[in-house]
């Protein structure tokens, strides 16, 4: 019986010690610079992050991606034009250049179609605005 009592007291003391530790090492927000207490929780005053919403972030991301895709499509089209000019009558090289031009145009059209689809879905679902203005 004394062994069972000892084990019960040991485990009770062990688990109760965690409660004491959590309150003993609690952070006082008023003494920590850069933090403010809200509803008993310490929040930083300045996180170094922007105040941009997810919607605004997606808008900026779509603008960057559309710009990158546009530049890559123009570069691919110019390279295909140079290939076509330097084919010098070689039918196989001219066909390859024409095919590459077609792929560059298709890539640009697909990127623009994706943008149009995103705007259409945003408009149909009642989103606040379009992804790209």
Can you describe this structure in just a few lines?
The protein is mainly α.
Distance between the termini: 78 Å
> In percent terms, what proportion of residues is strand?
5-15%
* Low-confidence blocks of residues: none
- Looking at the structure, what is the overall shape? elongated
> Helix coverage percent of residues?
55-70%
Give average pLDDT, whole number: 79
Radius of gyration: 32 Å
- Into how many domains do the coordinates divide? 2
How is the biggest beta sheet arranged?
2 strands, antiparallel
The count of DSSP E runs of length 2 or more, i.e. the number of strands, is: 2
Q: Give me the strand/helix succession.
A: HEEHH
Class derived from helix and strand content: mainly alpha
Query: Which strand order spans the largest sheet, edge to edge or round the barrel?
Result: 1-2
The number of helices is 3
Report on this model:
The chain is 67% helix and 6% strand. It is mainly alpha-helical. It has 2 domains: 2-44, no CATH class; 54-124. Strand 1 and strand 2 (41-44) form a beta hairpin. The chain is elongated.
Task: Summarize the helices and strands and which ones pair or pack.
Layout: H1 2-24, E1 35-38, E2 41-44, H2 54-85, H3 91-124
Antiparallel strand pairs: 1-2
Helix pairs in contact: 2-3
């Amino acid at each position: 019986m004394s062994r069972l009592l000892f084990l019960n007291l040991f485990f009770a003391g062990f688990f109760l010690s965690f409660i004491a530790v959590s309150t003993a090492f609690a952070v006082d927000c008023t003494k920590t610079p850069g933090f403010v207490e809200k509803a008993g929780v310490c929040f930083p005053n300045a996180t170094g992050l922007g105040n941009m919403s997810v919607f605004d972030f997606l808008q900026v991301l779509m603008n960057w991606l559309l710009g990158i895709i546009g530049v890559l499509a123009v570069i691919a089209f110019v390279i295909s034009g140079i290939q076509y000019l330097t084919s010098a009558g070689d039918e196989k090289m001219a066909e390859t250049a024409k095919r590459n031009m077609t792929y560059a145009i298709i890539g640009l059209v697909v990127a623009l179609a994706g943008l149009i689809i995103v705007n259409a879905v945003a408009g149909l679902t009642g989103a606040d605005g379009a992804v790209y203005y």
